[in-house]
Amino acid sequence: MKYLFGSPGKVSGLVLRMGQCLFAAASLAVMASASGFSTATSFCFLIAAMGLQVLWSFGLACLDIHALRLKKDLNNHIVLSLLVIGDWVTAILSLAAACSSARVMVVYMKDTDICSRSQATLSCNTFQISVALAFVAWFLLAVSSYLMFWLLATI
Fold first, then answer.
1. 30, 130 in Cβ contact below 8 A?
2. What is the pTM of this model?
């Protein structure tokens, strides 16, 4: 059995999950606090996807804490199968939401110049920060997804 960085039930896995949770929560909070986020469906989708990622990552961080406190080994076929499926589903949703929100920002800023107008009521800079945080959260989840898949393959 291999123990790689980010393995479930290890301190590195807990750090990875907490990073995912914090960046997703930050993206969600920044987007929800921006005025005019409901003007685009992709921004609402980003909020929903980041909310799911926060719940998933926080739940797995709690599982890692439990395993660390009781010194349990989480590297078995059933647990890793569930982690692989959950990580990949959450990663695909997070990437889709971040990419669609980034595309809306390109439309707003470059194609239509909505953000540069003086009467604009949209928080374009806040939207950009939220999208950037969503991509960081997705990257951490992608690392975790790849790692879980690799661990499942070594069993």
1. yes
2. 0.90
DSSP track, 81-142: HHHHHHHHHHHHHHHHHHHHHHHHHHIIIIIS-TTTSTT--S-HHHHHHHHHHHHHHHHHHH
3-state DSSP assignment of residue 3: coil
User: From CA 155, how far away is CA 147, in angstroms rounded?
Assistant: 13
110 touches 126 (CB < 8 A): no
Distance CA 148, CA 83 (A): 7
DSSP string, 32-82: HHSTTGGGSHHHHHHHHHHHHHHHHHHHHHHHHHHHHHHT----SHHHHHH
* DSSP type of residue 31: H
pLDDT tens track for 22-37: 999 999 999 999 888 8
Q: What pLDDT score does 129 carry?
A: 95
